[in-house]
Amino acid sequence: MQTILGAGGSIGFELAKELPKYTNHIRLVGRTPKKVNADDELFPAKLSDPKQVDRAVSGSAVVYVTIGFEYSAKSWQQLWPPFIKSVITSCKKHNARLVFFDNIYMYDPDFLGRMTEETPMRSVSKKGAVRQEIATLLLHEMAHSDLDVLIARSADFIGPKNSVLVEMVYKNLLKGKKADWFISADKLHNFTFTPDAAKATAILGNTPDAYNQVWHLPTDTTPLTGKDWVQLFANQMDMAPQVRVLPQWLLGMLGIFIPVLKEFREMSYQYDRDYVFESSKFEERFNFRPTTPEAAVKAIVDGLSV
């Protein structure tokens, strides 16, 4: 049995499509899980409840954590630490391997121009501090326990869901509006294509010697700025590449009316400098070539239903 905690999100859904390559027994866990494959086991659960987490983990050989709690520093501080502790406890109890799907919020901002698995942690945001706490817990387990655990870390997404590129660029252009970008459209910024991330996470979860390590998920490193990304979408949509840059002070004002922008403000430093996420460790180990930006943009424009 391979179990996805948080099966309804963008990664959980894509991961469920990949796992039949490795197992015939897939358990999808969430508030209202829906089948992705015909034989999926649906397991409704409130994952903030340790008892329900334990029941969800029971019988699992591999547990994937892809849950996304509300994008709020307060919610993250309240929910993430006890949740991950309960998952660790249950995985130990039931002898399950643990795959944690992570982001880069805990990384030292001074090193965003070239991020590798060795990049130091130094969070400068409330949400980053939560992710650093989780990463520290998992690294401790790697070093000091018998639990098999790995961290699969992704850059920002390019994909149909939870993607700045889709929400702020594609959908705006589709409505005849200017694409929005944060802080500076002249800085490099690469993105992980969500189907690549899910495929790689499934590979890692089913590779015994991949455990007790941190892995960057496959991400194309073509040097593209915000303006370049807008140009790619505009080319694919046969439109003019118009872009509006939102300065940090405006994010604060807009946050009064758009709560997610208020929450995003503390992460805006990721857009005032180059952001280059490297994944050569995974690519070389598994002979994996990430989807190119052009192909990823084409897939979104051709297949996304708004």
TrEMBL record:
<protein>
    <submittedName>
        <fullName>NAD-dependent epimerase/dehydratase family protein</fullName>
    </submittedName>
</protein>
<dbReference type="InterPro" id="IPR016040">
    <property type="entry name" value="NAD(P)-bd_dom"/>
</dbReference>
<dbReference type="InterPro" id="IPR036291">
    <property type="entry name" value="NAD(P)-bd_dom_sf"/>
</dbReference>
<dbReference type="Pfam" id="PF13460">
    <property type="entry name" value="NAD_binding_10"/>
</dbReference>
<feature type="domain" description="NAD(P)-binding">
    <location>
        <begin position="6"/>
        <end position="156"/>
    </location>
</feature>
